[in-house]
Amino acid sequence: MQLPQIHSITKKVLVALVGAFLLLFLLFHMTANLFILRHDDGAWYSAFCHFMGTNWVVKIFEVVLLGVVVLHIVLTIWLALTNRLARPTRYHQRQRSKTHANSKLMALTGALIFAFLVMHFCQFYFVKIGWVKGEYMVEVEKLQTEEVMTVQQYAMQQQMTPADWVAELEAQVSMYASQMTPEQQQEMQANIQSLRDALPVAELLRPENLSADRKWVRHIDYDQRNMLKKTVPDCGVEPDFYYMSREFFHNGIMVLLYLAAFVVLFMHLTHAFPSVFQTLGLNNYKYNCAIEVLGKIYTAVIVLGFAIVPILVYLGL
């Protein structure tokens, strides 16, 4: 098997730089996840997700991030294959090594993390790009077209549902149709049709579907999302990650799977953190111990920050 010839040190440096970037991103991602624990009906977390999903700079960053993840995987596999091909014949007798256990398990923990990422992307990120169905939300302001507001206003005044009010209006028009000219009848029918088309949107704006701050319409399913895109093309309907996360972490099996993944992540990062310093030549025998301790503290903060979200959500806190 012939692999492209790039010096092993170069590949190790690239892996270290990419790993350092991912370490910083994990801290950012963990901090954002803690917004889920706020008892504000998702106001902070939804605002954060809305910003991340609509800002063009963030969209570019997401592509870069996915590229970095893929690059990290490719480089580590490439490095492992290169090292193995360099010594096709294994040692006849295993030698005892002082290498840390987590270092020997890097390939395994990396593979498990990759499997977890695939699952995690299917549950969240792939919903965002439309590859997987999910739950959605939309800003109330973007749904308040003239027709929708007319249906809401008059239905509220008559203390009726929007559908009942439109049906009542249609019955009244039919009653007085004989007194109208053909042009008036045609105009009234067109008006009623526009109001009827606005009914599905008006139904979504019921108080029980609104967030506590009345800024978002929640619990929109996939079919309703498609309806909104056709009815109000500029509504900007987007995944409701707050609701999805809350619902998802009420499943005990999924919580256990995530916690197991965080244990594997801890094992992977406790070796990755000092390895970045070593590969980039930033370590020194005087403070190697301090780097390892700092790495464990940093990793523990990240892992515990991630783990506390599913645990507290599952406990109803």
> How many domains in all?
2
CATH architecture level-2 label of the largest domain: Up-down Bundle
Order of helices and strands: HHHHHHEHHHHEHEHHH
**Net shape:** elongated
> Tell me about the biggest sheet?
3 strands, antiparallel
| Fraction in beta strands | under 5%
**Strands in their spatial order, largest beta sheet:** 2-1-3
Helical content class: 55-70%
Kindly report the average pLDDT value.
Answer: 82
Explain the overall architecture:
- It is a single chain.
- This protein is mostly helical and 317 residues long.
- The protein folds into two domains: 8-86 and 102-135 and 245-314, 3 helical TM bundles of succinate and fumarate reductases (Up-down Bundle), CATH 1.20.1300.10; 139-237, no CATH class.
- The protein is 70% helix and 3% strand.
- Strands 2-1-3 form a three-stranded antiparallel beta sheet.
- The mean pLDDT is 82.
